[in-house]
């Protein structure tokens, strides 16, 4: 039997609760298709940090490197200063595992409410390919004259030819594989960020020549936000840098029904990838059995795809679609009409 080693990071807040449901679904679907998932639970979280002062060690990273994939619940603890865990765990893993793509599908399913007036599932179906290891996220910069009235703070956006190129290439290949509109929209700010997005733009049109069947398109990031609300049906694949990708994918999550259903993958096509719900640890809902586990279940679905278990992934998506169409009333915590664990059970039921 085929066996995959899966690192599982429950994380903080509602992370453990949603991971349990995702694992429940993964177990059911792996049984159906005859492969095995061997879970290794990794306690990279706020509680360990509060107890030991350890955020993430080199040994932790080595352990993750030996896995076929990683499933993550949520990072962010109310008693830990913002930034420590996010940068020390989530971003450190993305960077050291060189997960250079953050893939975030924006797809509205039938039965899920979108805040966009007169828009339905036929209008909202695109993906954002967010560069995941560079840009403003590298931590490059610093302070001068800190804590004085002349203080200067510098935060630099790092964009390398290699990093930009591999991200763009992934986007073009993804558009081919998706086989829908076959259009890649570069989302940038070439009118102001005339160095960073000059590199992106030049590389974009150069790489595009290798994919003659894929249309090229460009939109500034502010206009992208406008179109995502006004005409989401226009998009197929949007490719962008780390910061813009972070921002527009929260907007994307909202138009697809909210954080309760939005999932993403931190992907290293040649290495270890990590899949997660886009939403945070939602501390106020912790332990109440009210958080929506669908985003984490959808993250599991993306993980199956990355592992090459396409049929299993498809089944999970179909089960999610049935449950949101027939049963689940709202994507919001506490308003689903079901508890967290019942939602997991529903998906398992529809897998059969
Ligand atoms: C995300 C999150 C992270 C990011 C934070 C928690 C560091 O917002 O995954 O989008 O900015 O990438
Ligand atoms: Mn974000």
Description:
It is a single chain. With 352 residues, this protein is an alpha/beta fold. It has 2 domains: 1-107 and 259-352, 3-Layer(aba) Sandwich (Isopropylmalate Dehydrogenase); 114-256, Isopropylmalate Dehydrogenase. Helix content is 41%, strand content 20%. It contains 11 helices and 12 strands. It has helices at 15-33, 46-52, 58-65, 84-96, 161-178, 196-208, 221-230, 242-255, 294-307, 310-326, 340-351, and strands at residues 2-11, 35-41, 69-74, 101-107, 125-131, 141-144, 152-155, 183-188, 215-220, 237-240, 263-267, 273-277. The strands form 2 sheets. Strands 2-1-3-12-11-4-5-10-8-9 form a 10-stranded mixed sheet, sandwiched between helices. It has a two-stranded antiparallel ribbon with strand order 6-7. A hairpin with a 5-residue loop joins β11 (263-267) and β12. α1 crosses α9, α1 runs parallel beside α11 and α7 runs parallel beside α8 (242-255). The structure holds 3-isopropylmalic acid and manganese (II) ion (MN).
């Amino acid at each position: 039997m085929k066996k995959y080693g899966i690192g599982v990071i429950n994380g903080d807040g509602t992370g453990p609760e949603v991971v349990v449901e995702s694992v429940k679904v993964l177990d059911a679907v792996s049984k159906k298709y005859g492969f095995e998932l061997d879970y290794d639970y990794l306690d990279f979280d706020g509680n360990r940090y509060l107890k030991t002062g350890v955020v993430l060690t080199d040994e932790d990273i080595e352990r993750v490197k030996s896995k076929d994939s990683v499933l993550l619940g949520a990072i962010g603890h109310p008693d830990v200063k913002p930034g420590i865990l996010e940068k020390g765990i989530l971003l450190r893993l993305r960077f050291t595992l060189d997960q250079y793509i953050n893939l975030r599908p924006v797809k509205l399913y039938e039965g899920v409410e979108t805040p966009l007036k007169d828009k339905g599932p036929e209008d909202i179906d695109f993906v954002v390919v967010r560069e995941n290891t560079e840009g403003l996220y590298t931590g490059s910069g610093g302070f001068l004259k800190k804590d004085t009235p002349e203080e200067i703070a510098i935060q630099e956006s790092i964009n390398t030819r290699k990093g930009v190129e591999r991200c763009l290439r992934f986007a073009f290949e993804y558009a081919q594989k998706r086989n829908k509109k076959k259009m890649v929209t570069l989302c940038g700010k070439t009118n102001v960020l005339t160095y960073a997005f000059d590199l992106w733009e030049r590389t974009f049109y150069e790489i595009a020549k290798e994919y003659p069947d894929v249309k090229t398109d460009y939109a500034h990031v502010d206009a992208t936000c406008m179109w995502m609300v006004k005409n989401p049906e226009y998009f197929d694949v949007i490719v962008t840098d780390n910061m813009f990708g972070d921002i527009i994918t929260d907007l994307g999550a909202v138009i697809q029904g909210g954080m309760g259903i939005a999932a993403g993958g931190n992907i290293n096509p040649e290495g270890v990838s990590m899949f997660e719900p886009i939403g945070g640890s939602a501390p106020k809902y912790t332990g109440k059995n009210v958080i929506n586990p669908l985003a984490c279940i959808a993250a599991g679905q993306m993980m199956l795809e990355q592992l090459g278990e396409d049929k299993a992934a498809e089944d999970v998506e179909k089960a999610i679609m049935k449950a949101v169409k027939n049963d689940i009333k709202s994507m919001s915590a506490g308003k689903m009409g079901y508890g967290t664990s019942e939602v997991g059970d529903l998906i398992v039921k529809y897998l059969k």
